[in-house]
Design brief:
With 331 residues, this protein is α/β, with parallel strands linked by helices. It is built from eleven helices and six strands. It comes from Asbolus verrucosus (Desert ironclad beetle).
Length: 331
């Protein structure tokens, strides 16, 4: 039923007063590097013999990194990260529902009702500047079943992009689907988001004019550090990424590919993550990091090699790098 409503109603019913146009935001190819990159050629063997993500100006021009209100963007679709009953209250969802108006909640209650983890559901944008909202449910993070969490997060991003392609959409604003509320380490989630988008654009780049990574201040610095690894803006950034990228860069679509983790996925194909299972309480740790400063990464000046272990930290201290760097910055 909701698909019929989408086909019949091609435009939003209203427009937010403070609309942000993609053309008013700088493209990634236009953003000067914020961090100094070290020449690693004399510092030992690189993790990757060849660049896994080559310098591609055309792809870079499709990418925008923006810290702002996703509900204000005038794009074909924005993404909302929610729960399976599509009733989650978080800052991004709350802004989307407030701007979209009561018709959005009515459409969900009448036509959709629920969304399983990893799946996507599409609604009208209603009073938003965006034509559509693509809703998805991210995974809970659990140490025992880390691979299942990583794989599900990859599926979320890929399903969002695939649905956009199927609908013929050309501009999309992605929120951060992984959630600290669900104990997902923010930098590990960023690695999966960036490499999944990169691989999808390599295969289907002609389908999109604009992909906006919409983040808040706590994630902005993480994306500023990691974006050059997956979307290098020069041959120098491309070469430096051979040392900076984690060993696991995923498969051809960006999916997790470490052999030991693949075994765990196969051994637990029906596993569902539950809140009472072993997990990391990232909410309290991130709150500590936020209280130290506005955000942990974007104020850092210095060598990007200080961040080269992002995504490869011990599981028992997922935000140690963020907190240590912020403390150093304050000192």
């Amino acid at each position: 039923v909701y698909l019929m409503r989408i086909i019949m109603n091609q435009e939003p019913l209203g427009v937010a007063s403070d609309v942000v146009l993609p053309n008013d935001l700088p493209r990634w190819s236009e953003v000067a590097p914020a961090h100094y990159l070290t020449d690693y050629s004399a510092s030992g063997a690189a993790k990757h013999n060849n660049s896994p993500f080559p310098y591609d100006p055309e792809l870079n021009h499709k990418i925008i990194l923006w810290s702002g209100d996703i509900s204000a963007l005038q794009v074909d679709a924005i993404v909302n990260s929610t729960n399976e009953s599509m009733s989650e209250s978080n800052p991004v969802s709350d802004r989307i529902f407030q701007r979209a108006g009561s018709d959005l909640k009515e459409e969900i209650n009448l036509d959709i009702r629920e969304c399983r983890t990893g799946d996507v559901r599409v609604t009208q944008g209603h009073a938003l500047p965006a034509r559509y909202i693509i809703h998805t449910v991210g995974p809970k993070y659990n140490i025992k079943y880390q691979s299942a969490s990583e794989n599900t997060l990859h599926i979320c991003y890929r399903n969002v992009l695939q649905k956009s392609k199927e609908m013929g959409l050309h501009s999309i604003a992605l929120c951060v689907i992984n959630s600290v509320k669900r104990n997902y380490p923010p930098d590990e989630g960023a690695h999966i988001a960036l490499r999944t988008v990169r691989r999808f654009l390599e295969h289907h780049g002609s389908s999109f004019d604009t992909v906006i990574f919409t983040v808040d201040n706590t994630d902005l610095g993480i994306y500023e550090v990691l974006l050059p690894l997956y979307f290098p803006r020069s041959k120098f950034e491309e070469d430096a990424a051979r040392w900076q990228l984690p060993a696991d860069i995923g498969g051809s679509d960006g999916e997790p590919m470490l052999p030991d983790r693949q075994i765990r996925i196969i051994d637990n194909p029906q596993h569902t993550l539950h809140a009472d299972e072993e997990s990391i309480d990232l909410s309290s740790q991130l709150e500590t990091s936020i209280n130290v400063g506005e955000h942990a990464f974007s104020q850092m000046q210095g060598d990007l090699d200080q961040q080269r272990l992002l995504g490869e930290r011990p599981f028992n201290d997922p935000l140690a790098d963020i907190m240590v760097k912020e403390i150093q910055h304050q000192e």
